[in-house]
Design goal:
heterotrimer; A alpha+beta (976); B mainly beta (87); C alpha+beta (228); A: 976 residues; alpha+beta; Ubiquitin-like (UB roll); FAD/NAD(P)-binding domain; 6 domains; 24 helices; 47 strands; elongated; B: 87 residues; mainly beta; Folate-binding fold; 4-stranded antiparallel sheet; two-stranded antiparallel sheet; 10% helix; globular
Chain lengths: 976, 87, 228
């Protein structure tokens, strides 16, 4: 059926009993359950799986190691499908992502012929004049992009979870499995993760045709699976390393945040491509890609192969091909001579021609342009190709086995110091941070037995680090021969010898970049974009580094590496989104507000009624009616979001004196006083009201937004001062309701026996009483400028209190009012709101709060700074203003500027239409010279128009504050 | 996520904490001239090194001092204010 | 005239019930959203009556239990003088002889909660009206929750970053941490007890219940979880 399918292989990952059909580029393809998209396509004879980013060249399988960017596909709304990773499903309808039209014929392929005009960094030059930008933008948008986003794609969130372990082993190859086992045997709790569907790693595909090693590996896997202290998570990627061994584990269905006590990195190595002309043709692939195709998916990578190698891995891979009936026409070895071993012997016995000290100069394309037809092989002279002696060897596939680069991303993120080891020609860990260990090929250990030992060593070291075992020395032998070639790169006058397959970067691009001055690794990366594609340099950074080293005559160590950043592989947004916990606070009266038709707003984490909806009335009308109800009758508002703090103790008054600007030691019991809080620079940070309940007991409020920070700061200050007092945060424990209006006293009188006369309960006094049978603290307040009570009760009694007040006020048309109405009411009294009418630099004098500051106290926070500030004239002061009575235009808004003589002379901080005064009123900061009452000034609105305003005295309404202090002498008739 | 050890509640992720600025023992403000006071209030030493900092474990409202290397972000020691010597 | 008291979580059940009847969503969770209103200790609260869920994962509202809080350098001595056992280390708890528990929150703060049968807390509230020096009463208006069932740790793994499995329960630990962004006090055990500021109660309850229902659990009557 599949023309490139092999006979069943022991241990293969596919299930041949289950056929699965899917579509690719509109054509039906059949594969087996367990196939990845690439393996199913390759088995069916597909060669062009995608088109390259810049030149739209046909591409097939390169690494088959979970980072083949050229085979990214789209499945309906699902983007960034890694064809070498995702298993096929029958509902898949896949398309190539960077192709104009069918991937086999991509109309944009013409770009390949214009490549001379698209050199490295061409966009820096293309945009040299702004005039060309629109043209280039259109062109580039059409040509590039790795998929099409469908804006109607549903937002998916998958819940995250936390996970814990003693030792996290990243990578379940031979060394990782060994490490996990030895750590667990020493008594620690181990989690081992592998991004692949099954564990085992190269132990199950670098076989040289012999299954014994695969069996040993399978046994090792079994021991790990059966060990009670080991948890094995497959299909799970360790996406990054964060401080204190915090590793996101990205699985198929969700992301886990793993906190480990130690980490063993056994991530292995990335096989590296050789660089020669047309090394990107479908059919040219890494040797390990071919081995994985064979042993995991039973797919024949090619029929006639040429193997380019520089290590024993290449010979072993050639034997793997032969064992499956694939013809190996030649082995081309970049090295001057090869080491004889069992693999070379097998090949010689089969009559395979071996060409030491040769290179592949060029791969030839077949007539259909969808594969290799031949390899052009040259001998080497001091590393340079002798093109005069080229041989053409016909083949339909080329394996590259020239070297490896450490998959050290997470080690770098953990701040490991790496060094370049000349013998194995790769970076290896040099200084590991505490609790981090490395083993296996990422540690430069390649031989299979040594990998096992190295893993064992790392596991025991981790256990010893955790105090679970004594450290036993395990000897690990170094490599006999280098697994990596120092420079597997061949120049060609016609180019198209690719270094970075994601970004379509050729060898000459690097020479050009260096020539332009971008000759250090960080600059080279950014100018060429090497390593910035979806695979993030896994197959290209090492070669780029080697090239730069050669150009600048440095060692790889001197050139250095760029920083590898999370995430290691693409992570779906759904996994990152998680549930999105957003805490919300509600006062106990919430259900009453809902029932009354409240329109809610968010004030920090709190939900508060902005206003209450009325049928047939818009927002402005509702707010206006609420304001009128308070002025003319009685209103009720839930102010439960206010910060509420209690302080007790012998030094309670002293503490308050140090923290606020006023004098509180002299307060009579049963009185309240305004409280202004500054920071040490003298800037206003919060305000509230302090009530004295007894000699050593005060109860005080803060702004809603300041509650938490004030409590933290007061706690911190007393940690330092050690005064004899204790502070309790009652913000959530108490509910508070304001009952305000000329009928407020009458309403309250229905619910309490407490004497409410002016004499017994004067303005600004505080009293403890029972209201509707509940213990309550009541304060007479003046914030909105009417006779009013602020009543505090325990939160669980709030509903009872509200219902009782609403009931008692029914005869007086008691009206609930919201935040917006309250803001208008307080503005009519000229009261400022900290954070609205003050900013990060406002000091008390500027805000007309000098009266609240007792500078002659022994000490308070901000005092010393105020002493300095008091010597200067304030830059501006807060004034009240009104617009003309019949103003009809668009009124100015908060933060609009006051302009005088073309200069900024101040700004508006609050403005609203006052239903009581029937004109626009506001507060603004203005230069001293312009602040006289009656002075006119100009406000500039957003569209540039000027609005004239006049400085006014405050309060705007009831300037003598008679309404809140005394019973109104004139009463409106109440309609019952 | 970084871990910090609260002296009372143990090791927790940094999301449970709030930073309270560098520990500065402000001498008697009245004894300083205006210039020195302004420097005390506005200037901070930005050079990397081991700093003593105020941190608060929010769920328990525990304020404590952390000695932290601001170059490596390594916390060397945490203790309750005034109990430095008991560590 | 006497007032009535209401659990901070009460509204959550009523709102959810209304939402269900309006939107006719999630048939599998209808059962747990059917709430009955009850009153204990003069506090009204709502209970789910899905009996089957308590073995997998059940959540219930225990805000109605009476409780008392106190802090200060002399708090321990004062409580001792009232014949209460004092946990000897911060962040530990002890059972009270007549039922209920005393939890030491850090060094100098205590939470005393009654069982359904005991009544120490109201007495302590009375006694603390005029507290001695360095004894500061703390008004407790918690949303108090209990979790039971085999999947508790799975729920916690999604909502709280603490390694609960590593706790030594024989030490009777008390944990002050955050859960879904809210400050909480947790006592782990066969049943997990969780307290938070009442104004976050509805949010905490709804957030946890959502996840619990995904895990095939639900809101249950407290009798299902507690041998009170």
């Amino acid at each position: 059926m599949n023309e490139m399918r092999l006979l069943p292989i022991p241990g293969e990952w596919i299930d041949r009993r289950q056929l699965i059909d899917f579509t690719f580029e509109g054509r039906r393809v059949t594969g087996y359950a367990g196939d990845t998209i690439s393996s199913a396509l390759w088995a069916s004879g597909y060669r062009i799986l995608g088109r390259s980013f810049k030149y739209h060249r046909p591409r097939g399988i390169l690494s088959f190691a979970n980072h083949d960017t050229n085979t990214l596909m789209q499945n309906g709304q699902m983007l960034n499908v890694r064809a070498d990773v995702l298993s096929i499903r029958s509902d898949m309808a896949l398309t190539a992502i960077n192709s104009m039209g069918d991937v086999r014929s991509d109309r944009a392929h013409v770009l390949d012929f214009f490549s001379a005009f698209l050199p490295v960094g061409f966009y820096y030059k293309a945009f040299h004049t702004k005039k060309l930008f629109p043209f280039w933008e259109k062109v580039i948008r059409r040509m590039t992009g790795l998929g099409t986003v469908d804006p109607s794609t549903p937002h998916i969130r998958t819940a995250k979870r936390y996970d814990f372990c003693d030792v996290l082993v990243i990578g379940a190859g031979i060394s990782g499995l060994s490490a996990a086992l030895s750590a667990a045997q020493a008594g620690v709790d181990v989690v081992i993760v592998d991004e692949n569907l099954h564990p085992g790693g190269s132990g199950q595909y670098q076989l040289g045709g012999e299954m014994a090693q695969a069996q040993h590996t399978a046994n090792l896997v079994k021991s790990v699976q059966q060990h009670p202290r080991i948890r094995l998570y497959t299909e799970t990627e360790a996406a990054g390393y964060y401080d204190d061994h915090w590793v996101p584990l990205v699985g198929r269905n969700y992301l886990s945040k793993m906190r480990a006590e130690s980490v063993i990195v056994a991530t292995g190595v990335y096989e590296q491509p050789a660089v020669f002309r047309n090394n990107d043709l479908p059919g040219v692939m890494l040797a390990s890609a071919a081995q994985r195709l064979i042993y995991r998916y039973g797919v024949k990578p090619m029929n006639r192969a040429v193997v380019l190698t520089a290590n024993s891995d290449g010979y072993r891979a050639a034997v793997d091909l032969i064992a499956q009936g694939i013809t190996v026409v030649a082995v081309v070895d970049l090295r001057e001579s090869y080491v004889e071993d069992q693999w070379t012997k097998k090949l010689c016995d089969r009559g395979v021609k071996i060409f030491p000290n040769h290179c592949i100069y060029e791969a030839s394309s077949n007539p259909a342009n969808d594969g290799v037809s031949a390899a052009i092989v040259c001998s080497l002279n001091s590393g340079n190709p002798e093109t005069g002696f080229a041989q053409l060897i016909s083949c339909d596939g080329i394996l590259m086995s020239v070297g490896w680069a450490a998959a050290a991303n997470l080690l770098y993120q953990a701040k490991t110091k790496m060094r370049f080891d000349d013998h194995v020609q790769q970076f290896v860990p040099h200084i590991l941070p505490p609790g981090i260990f490395a083993c296996g090929r990422v540690n430069g250990i390649f031989h299979i037995e040594q990998k096992r030992c190295d893993g064992q060593r790392a596991g025991l070291e981790a256990a010893a680090y955790l105090g679970k075992s004594d450290l036993t020395k395990i000897a690990v032998l170094p490599e006999a021969e280098s697994p990596s070639h120092p420079f597997p790169i061949v120049a060609h006058p016609k180019g198209k010898n690719f270094v970075d397959f994601d970004e379509d970067l050729q060898l000459k691009d690097f020479y050009n970049a260096a020539q332009e001055g971008f000759d250090n690794i960080e600059l080279l990366k950014r100018y060429t974009t090497v390593g910035m594609g979806a695979s993030q340099g896994k197959h290209s950074n090492m070669n780029a580094l080697r090239i730069l080293a050669r150009i600048t005559n440095k060692t790889p160590e001197q050139v250095g590496t760029t920083t590898a950043r999370p995430f290691f592989h693409p992570v779906p947004m759904s996994h990152l989104a998680g549930r999105g916990f957003t805490p919300e606070r509600r006062t106990p009266l919430h259900s009453r507000h809902e029932a009354l038709g409240a329109e809610f707003m968010l004030a920090g984490a709190w939900r508060r009624p902005e206003y209450y909806r009325q049928r047939g009335k818009n927002r402005e009308d509702c707010i206006r009616l609420e304001v009128e109800a308070v002025r003319n009758g009685v209103g009720i508002i839930d102010v439960g979001t206010l910060g509420k703090l209690e302080i007790r103790g012998a030094d309670a008054a002293e503490f308050l004196e140090r923290v606020y600007t006023g004098r509180y030691t002299s307060m009579k019991i049963g009185t309240t006083r305004y409280a202004l809080m500054l920071d040490e620079t003298g800037v206003i940070v919060d305000d509230g009201v302090i009530a004295r309940l007894s000699a050593e007991h005060f109860y005080f409020t803060t702004t809603t937004s300041g509650a938490a920070t004030v409590y933290w700061e007061l706690s911190r200050l007393n940690t330092m001062w050690r005064l004899d007092c204790g502070i309790v945060n009652l913000t959530g424990a108490r509910s508070s309701i304001n009952l305000v209006g000329s009928h407020a006293r009458t309403v309250l009188a229905k619910l309490t026996d407490f004497e409410l006369s002016e004499a017994a309960f004067p303005y600004l006094a505080v009293r403890e009483m029972r209201i509707a049978g509940m213990p309550a603290i009541a304060m007479r307040v003046g914030f909105v400028g009417e006779w009013g009570y602020e009543i505090h009760v325990a939160a669980d009694s709030a509903l009872a209190l509200w219902d009782a007040l609403m009931n008692a006020g029914a005869d007086y048309n008691i009206r609930p009012f919201g935040v917006e109405a309250q803001r208008v009411l307080r503005l009519e009294k000229g009261h400022l709101i900290v954070g609205q009418d003050t900013d990060g630099l406002t000091t008390p004098m500027e805000a007309n709060l000098g009266w609240a500051v007792k500078l002659d106290k022994p000490f308070f926070v901000g005092q010393r700074s105020l002493q300095i500030i008091a010597k200067r004239t304030p830059k501006h002061t807060l004034v009240g203003f009104v617009l003309e009575k019949n103003f009809k235009g668009t009124p100015p808004q908060e933060c609009h500027l006051i302009i005088d003589n073309n200069e900024i002379a101040g700004r508006v901080t609050s403005i609203a239409f006052s239903p009581t005064l029937q004109c626009y009123i506001g507060l603004a900061y203005i230069k001293p010279g312009l602040s006289e009452v009656g002075n006119s000034f100009s406000i500039r609105t957003t569209d540039g128009t000027s609005v004239m305003a006049t400085v006014s005295k405050t309060p705007f309404y009831d300037p003598d504050n008679a309404r809140q202090k005394k019973i109104a002498t004139v009463r409106r008739e109440v309609v019952v | 996520m970084k871990l910090i050890t609260c002296p009372i509640n143990g090791t927790r992720p940094v999301s449970e904490f709030v930073y309270g600025g560098e520990l500065r023992l402000i001498s008697d403000p009245q004894a300083l001239d205006d210039q020195t006071w302004a420097e005390q209030v506005f200037y901070r030493n930005g050079a990397p090194g081991i700093k003593k900092e105020w941190w608060c474990h929010v769920p328990s409202n525990t304020w404590f001092i952390a000695e932290r290397n601001t170059a490596t972000d390594e916390t060397l020691n945490t203790y309750l204010y005034g109990e430095e010597d008991s560590r | 005239m006497t007032g009535f008291r209401v659990s901070p979580i009460c509204d959550a059940m009523r709102l959810a019930q209304r939402a269900t009847s309006e939107k006719m969503a999630k048939p599998s969770s209808e059962e747990s959203l059917i709430a009955t209103e009850r009153e204990i200790n003069q506090m009204r609260f709502a209970q789910g009556n899905s009996s089957g869920h308590s073995t997998t994962l059940g959540i219930t509202d225990l805000s109605f239990l009476t409780r008392f809080g106190v802090k200060g350098a002399a708090a321990a001595a004062w409580l001792h003088a009232q014949n209460l056992p004092i946990p000897d280390a911060p962040n530990r708890w002890l059972p009270l002889r007549g039922g209920g528990l005393i939890a030491r929150l850090g060094f100098n703060e205590f939470l005393i909660e009654d069982s359904i049968n005991s009544s120490i807390a109201p007495q302590l509230i009375e006694l603390s009206q005029h507290p001695p020096a360095k004894v500061y009463p703390v008004l407790r208006q918690d949303a108090a929750i209990a979790l039971g069932g085999s999947l508790i740790l799975d729920l916690l793994a999604q909502t709280c970053s603490l390694h609960f499995r590593a706790l030594n329960l024989s030490e009777c630990p008390v944990v002050l941490t955050t859960m879904v962004g809210v400050n909480v006090t947790i006592i782990p055990g066969e049943i997990y007890r969780i307290w938070c500021d009442g104004t976050y109660g509805v949010y905490l309850w709804q957030t946890l219940l959502n996840i619990i229902e995904e895990m095939q659990g639900g809101a249950v009557e407290f009798e299902q979880l507690l041998p009170l």
